């Protein structure tokens, strides 16, 4: 009788260990899936970044020429909405468009300045429009 009791007890313990091992395995599985998802996301981000860089390196010349004309008329210049000291040498300019620029504070005033982000967005937009038009023609 006593022998049976002890064997049933050790079998309970074995089941408990098995359940714990299964839980640990599930946790490891979940972690691995999460890591994989994070890795996939990083790879997708890098691919998108590379595609964007390639696009910016291969802008149609006519789009670049139009951007130059507009730039002469200061169409990509934005007013400074706020200037925030960043460290001893630099300030962060918050432009009216929402983009920010880091500048050396002694040699920069608060006059409107070209926003390279707005310019890049314009270049991309116009380049895509042109490619679409050429593709459709
Ligand atoms: Zn901007």
What do these coordinates show?
The protein has 137 residues and is α+β, with helices and mostly antiparallel strands. The chain folds into two domains: 1-58; 61-136, no CATH class. It has three helices and five strands. It has helices at 2-57, 61-72, 116-136; strands spanning 77-78, 80-85, 90-95, 100-104, 113-114. The strands form two sheets. The protein has a three-stranded antiparallel sheet with strand order 2-3-4, with no helix packed on it. The termini are far apart. The mean pLDDT is 91. The site of zinc ion has 7 residues, from α3.
Compute the separation of the termini in Å: 92 Å
Structural class: alpha+beta
Average pLDDT taken over every residue: 91
Could you tell me the number of beta strands? 5
Based on Cα principal axes, name the global outline.
Answer: elongated
The main sheet orders its strands as 2-3-4
Number of helices: 3
Question: How can the largest sheet be summarized?
Answer: 3 strands, antiparallel
| Beta-strand residue fraction | 15-25%
Ions, cofactors and other bound molecules: zinc ion
Low-pLDDT windows of residues: none
| Cα radius of gyration in angstroms | 30 Å
* Helix percentage range: 55-70%
Q: State the order of secondary-structure elements, H for helix, E for strand.
A: HHEEEEEH
Overall domain count: 2
